[in-house]
Design goal:
The structure holds two protein chains of two kinds. By secondary structure, chain A is mainly alpha-helical. Chain A contains two helices and no strands. Chain A has one domain. By secondary structure, chain B is of the alpha+beta class. Chain B has two domains: 94 residues, Sandwich (Immunoglobulin-like); 187 residues, no CATH class. Chain B is built from eleven helices and ten strands. Chain B has a four-stranded antiparallel sheet. A four-stranded antiparallel sheet of chain B has the order 4-3-7-10, with no helix packed on it. The two termini of chain B are 40 Å apart. Classes of the chains: A mainly alpha, B alpha+beta. Chains A and B meet through α1 of A and α6 of B.
């Protein structure tokens, strides 16, 4: 295969990977910073309900 | 209260400054220079000029502003009766995207020489931006003339309140997402020649924006978050939000043009939802044949709206 294509493919993988990593870390940090305390009992009650719609 | 007043004053002052910089001041003998049709440039003088002087083509030269060495071929010069309006006709069609420079030599008015001046002819930029905005809002409304985003459109247009909520959320998200995708496309994808991956990147960006807005809004403004409710997540399923970045990438828009297109698309969707929900609220009480109740009549109504929006088609502003 043409080495140019391989270069392009690897470049694309690296670039998209780094974009994904960058924004992933950003979202994780945002989620951490803007964390909202949720009452765990709400989830538990929801789990126990029938759950049809 | 005081803070609000100060902020309002600041905004007004800023707008005024922006407006002032938009119009040039200072006395000039050439009052106005505009493009005329495809081949012409119209100069408007403050007073009558001599017909003999105006008849000489050699007194005028036209060039595109970036390359002053390449003079364009002037075919004819015509002076309107009244001697204040002069039309230059060029041999080739003008590229109106580029600003042009017109050099006028030794202007003669009432037998007196007034010296030479150069004027710039350019399409009004604010007008251009406004045309993009209005184009996305009405003339090429994404719902009624491009038939995009129909699933969300029919899903959330049953009640006025949900329709408006969805529309506002959508406008919010689309402006953020398109600006981000514009930035990423222009500064990352294009320089690295990866623009064939644009769809994947844009889809990721849209979900990222929605997730980020969801996370941040939940903490900062829970009331607004409750009002947005389920619609925030529904925005991901809307195809307008992916169509706009693709159009931006195709047309090579700059940042302000992108902002205007995104805003127009968002507000156009809001308008479409509002119109549709107003009709559907009344349809609830209408005597619709049984087989048409619900979605079928909604599709017919949407078709009628699309027909009426066709009235805007072919309109051009500025």
């Amino acid at each position: 295969m043409d080495p140019l294509y391989i270069k392009l493919a690897i470049g694309g993988l690296v670039l998209l990977g780094s974009i994904g990593l960058f924004f992933g870390i950003g979202l994780a940090l945002a989620a951490h910073k803007f964390a909202v305390e949720v009452n765990p009992k709400v989830e538990e009650v929801k789990e126990l309900l029938a759950g049809a719609q | 209260m005081r803070k609000k007043v100060i902020a309002l004053t600041a905004a007004v002052v800023m707008l005024a400054v922006l407006g002032l910089t938009g119009c040039e001041t200072g006395p000039r003998f050439i009052k106005q220079a505009d493009f005329d049709e495809t081949h012409g440039i119209v100069l408007t003088f403050a007073g009558p000029v001599d017909a003999d002087w105006a008849a000489d083509k050699a007194n005028f030269s036209v060039n595109e502003k970036p390359d002053p060495d390449i003079l364009l071929n002037i075919e004819s010069v015509r002076l309107d009766p009244g001697n204040t309006r002069l039309t230059l006709t060029l041999a080739d069609a003008l590229n109106q995207e580029q600003p042009h420079q017109v050099v006028v030599k030794d202007i003669m008015a009432d037998g007196k020489p007034l010296g030479s001046t150069a004027v710039t002819v350019a399409r009004s930029y604010f007008g251009h931006l406004f045309a993009i905005f209005l184009g996305a809002l009405l003339i090429q409304n994404f719902v009624f003339s491009k038939y995009l985003g129909l699933c969300v459109f029919f899903g959330t247009s049953q009640k006025k309140s949900t329709a408006v909520g969805m529309g506002i959320t959508f406008t919010f998200v689309i402006v953020f997402a398109s600006l981000m995708s514009w930035f990423l496309y222009q500064f990352v994808l294009k320089p690295y020649r990866l623009d064939h991956l644009q769809i994947i990147v844009f889809i990721g960006l849209v979900s990222l924006t929605v997730q980020a807005v969801d996370t941040i809004l939940r903490k900062i403004n829970p009331a607004l978050f409750k009002a947005f409710g389920v619609y925030l997540v529904l925005v991901i399923a809307n195809c307008i939000v992916i169509a706009v970045p693709l159009i931006l990438a195709d047309n090579e828009y700059n940042m302000f043009e992108s902002l205007m297109l995104a805003l127009g698309a968002g507000l156009g969707f809001l308008l479409a939802l509002f119109l549709m929900s107003s009709v559907r609220e009344r349809l609830e009480f209408a005597n619709v044949p049984v087989s048409y109740r619900g979605l079928p009549i909604a599709f017919i109504v949407a078709g009628l709206f699309a027909l009426s929006f066709m009235g805007f088609s072919g309109m051009s502003i500025f």
